[in-house]
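Appendix C reproduces, verbatim, an entry submitted by the partner laboratory led by Prof. M.T., so that reviewers can inspect both the input and the predicted structure.
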Amino acid sequence: MTPDVLALVQDTIRRHAMLAGGETVLIACSGGSDSTALLYLLSRLGPAWGLRLHGLHVDHGLREGSDHEADVAQRLGERLGIPVDAVRVAVSRRGSLEEAARTARYAALEAHAERLGAQRIAVGHTADDQAETVVMRLLEGAGVRGLAAIPPVRGRIIRPLIAVRRAALVALLEEAGLDWTEDPTNADPKFVRNRIRHELLPMLAAVHDGDLVTALTHVAGRAREVVEALERMATLELDRLVRENADALTLPREPLVALPRPVATEVLRQAAARLGSRAALRSWAHRALARVLAGPPPRRPVRVGGVAIEVSGSLVRIGRATSPPLPGRPVPVPGTVALPEVGLCLEARLVPATGYQVPREPERVAFDAERLTGPLVVRGRGRGDRFQPFGSDRERQLKTLLIDARVPRWERERVPLVEAAGSIVWVGGLRRGAQAPITADSRQILELRLHPMDAPSTGLRGVQP
């Protein structure tokens, strides 16, 4: 029995490129049959593969006597020559207890791997676990990603036993004379997985002509092939379309919507993941992303795993948070004021009117200095702002002007507005106001210029933070 299981594990490691040889591997040791077999099998493979093995037992502290399992795992480690540490974690009682325990367990494994410098974390999921997960996902109405179930490799997590049946591992341990513990919660029918394991799968196996577990793991394998192809396609499209800055990614909506819906959804998921979202795409998340791709799109941001996805005009923005608004600041004349929230500086200078050429570029604007009354202030948009553009005889809502100028919704609070005596005289980079036009009688010009913070200015004094 041992050579067959050992060969199957080696084949799984090679097929999924779990190890190259020479790695430090942290092994999750619960004390149950699966993790005990994993520790034993990797101890057999360790010398040939040049592996440095460590174990970690995570005690969730959810029931009396759980510390006994740590003792069992550590005694096994001593017998096999593998150091096994034990940690106790706090598990949130809010929501799903299973999910909270899993989150705490993987966080502990990742933290311990960091301390050890381990390149891989080996966990003991088996073919039976895979089959149970496929059935759970079917009952949840999962799509193809859900049917792919448990991945053999995810990040530094590897599952060398994913092709091995649980019964084969039990037989292996009995043959080797190794003891293990049984977690009593594995038989508790209040957990859905246990009812699938002990009730539903045996019932299905009784009416199924063939190996049910093998059939279900085959489904997971085919689904994973589709998911991997989808991920590769989406990565190519994301790299082709994306524009990146410090806290957000921006995509053109029209070519995104033109993609097949599964590819477009995966593009959004990957974009969110690049910004730190680790949310599993459950049905609610798929519905949320479908709204982003639908017409008309939602007016409010859609949140997936702490990342906001919002649509404005022809653009889709995926960001960790909304951009900070631009606070009000006085503008020294002459001088420069920094606007770090938008990465710009506003520069003001006074120049003689004689021979002056009125600027045409959007980042510069000029006024008759003697007609522009009141101190200058630069600020972000406020509720109810109105603005009279140059050449117009009436005011209009600033919001309408920004929409017409196709300024994305998430940037409208960050457009620099220069105001004099309470009236907006310049919508920075977009439109000049009607105030203080330059005429043949003008003697002095006030010129305002926006430029990136790292760009050189004209060397004026009076820079304000």
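The CA atoms of residues 240 and 251 lie 10 Å apart. Additional entries are available on request from the coordinating office.
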